Amino acid sequence: MKESALLEDPALPALASGRHDALAAALARVGLPGARTVALLKHHPGSRCTLAIAAGTDRYVVKLFADAAPVLALSAVHQVLAGAGLASGRGPTVPRLVGVDTDAALLVTEMYAAPPTTALVERGESDRAGRLAAQWLRAAATPGLTLGDPYDPPHALEDVHSYVCTIGTAAGELGGRAGAVRDRLAADIPPSGYSDLRHGSFYLSHVFDLGDGPGVIDWDTFRQGPVEVDAGMLCAMAARWAVHRPNHAGAAQRAVAVFLDEVHDLLDPARLRWYRAAALLKFASYLARRRRPDGWAVSTAALIGNAEMVSA
After folding, report:
1. If DSSP states are collapsed to H, E and C, what string results for the chain?
2. What's the whole-model pTM score?
3. pLDDT band at residue 6 using 50, 70 and 90 as cut-offs
4. Which of residues 250 and 7 earns the better pLDDT score?
5. pLDDT at res. 167
């Protein structure tokens, strides 16, 4: 297997050797002999890795894990969505599943040649970005897609508590403010609503414009919960853009406004605010982790401030 950049991770069966013999053999078993690595997309050492590969003129995404459990779980997601008509390759859809190999703990899907909706926002096509995200949410709101760990408000509060702890470890004052938001969320838990398969990290960067509808990638954090789990995450994303991409903050807010206008009939306003505030604390905790970027405290405070307003 020809590699553009050799990568070794002893915890991942497919990358245990820098020669990548196990990876090449697994790709051959799923029907991609002679594939080569094009790019490293993401790597969490000891846990997981995502590669872009080429086989002839086609491009694929390979997700590598430390064991087969997440491979089987993601394969199940594709099967459930396929049963609902959401894995056809025509939007709304998830990427076509090419194959899995449990021995090498990997899963292969097609790679979209289309742009993510973040690119639409950056070039001023916010309305289309919002409509594509809404089209997916509406298509996936069909009851009966039951899969994943429960993520009703009581379960989500467990994550919120960990976010507050992370923020508090980095800065006590910010942790106190985040803790006050947590306490408001704990005191005002909304009804759970009907619970079905949700993406879990429903960002614009995970929604692609396929021309005939959205394609949605990266289901690693799938869970089971109300539709506001994903809607709240997408809404919180606008505040995250204000921190990380201030030049496009207005365009991101426009995309969210269009999104909400398209799906308002699906959403409970109180539950949406609740999950939106939880997502804002999640984004704040990302900035407060060990590798804190320059200006992290100001950005974290801004996100907590948004969570305070949403949860008030």
Report:
1. CCCCCCCCCCCCHHHCCCCCHHHHHHHHHCCCCCCEEEEEEEEECCCEEEEEEEECCEEEEEEEECCCHHHHHHHHHHHHHHHCCCCCCCCCECCCEEEEECCCCEEEEECCCCCEHHHHHHCCCHHHHHHHHHHHHHHCCCCCCCCCCECCHHHHHHHHHHHHHHHHHHCHHHHHHHHHHHHHHHHCCCCCCCCEEECCCCCHHHEEECCCCEEECCCCCCEEECCHHHHHHHHHHHHHHHHHCHHHHHHHHHHHHHHHHHHHHHCCHHHHHHHHHHHHHHHHHHHCCCCCCCCHHHHHHHHHHHHHHHHC
2. 0.93
3. low
4. 250
5. 97
